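Review this fold:
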Amino acid sequence: MRSQRLRVAFARLGLPLWFLMIDTQVIGPGTLPGGDAILYAHGAASYIHGLDPWSASLVANGQTYHFAGLPPTVLAFIPFSGLPDWVTGWGWVVLSALSAGLIVWRLKLTWFYLLFPPLLSGVASGNPQIALLALLLVGAGPLASLLKIYAIVPMVGERRWRSVTVSGALLLATVAVAPGLWATYASRLSQISSTLITESHGGFSAWGQPWPILAATVVALLVIARFNGGTAGWLAVPAIWPASEYHYATMILPISAPLLAFAIAIPWYGVPALVTIGYAAVLVMKTFGKDRWPLRRTALAGAV
């Protein structure tokens, strides 16, 4: 009974306090509201004016960031390319906040998951990741893939083959609509990737870690996929997507249990990979009847 009370206290009190504590660390007075959306709009504006979208940059918190999205993202942000920065920034903050509310409601999560640090960080920066997750949850995965191509990964994990096919068709359509944009991207891919890795400090995923961690993460995802492909699909983006950002961890919300959310909220590089490895280890231990983790079976079952 005592252990059960402790688990309930952790889920209802400890977790929101943990979220709030980290929020104060990842969102500060230097945060530019909607900064990511502004940068994406600058990339689209450069394309409209015949310039290289991947030369567009933005200074935030004393650091220069360059646009690094794929051509479909450039096209998706054309409607915002002629707007003042403050309109684009705050507009995407509002859109992201609404998307966050939809995510929490759709997944029937407790209200304090609105404070989940990767989610709140994505809302503050106006990053398309938050709208992307909302689109995935309402069955509009193909539209999500136009915002960021990795939206296809969880669709593959859940075997949404129709959505994957439509996504592929839409991506091919962007090649037909803007072949020159794709040609520029292909010619500059190496430089774009190098700049992105440098500015993201290697990213939060396993790609920025020593190769044994990357290898262990890939194996862990394969193990998780053996149990449930959908779970592996949601974990794969924050775990192994190159140059991943902190807000990519919002992808775990559809499979979230309190302990998983607690761990992956830690804003350290490599945490999503280590969490994925730990998740796989728990599944293996439970399969062989060695469940010694202080986590309710129902919580983990719900996550899987």
In short: The radius of gyration is 19 Å.
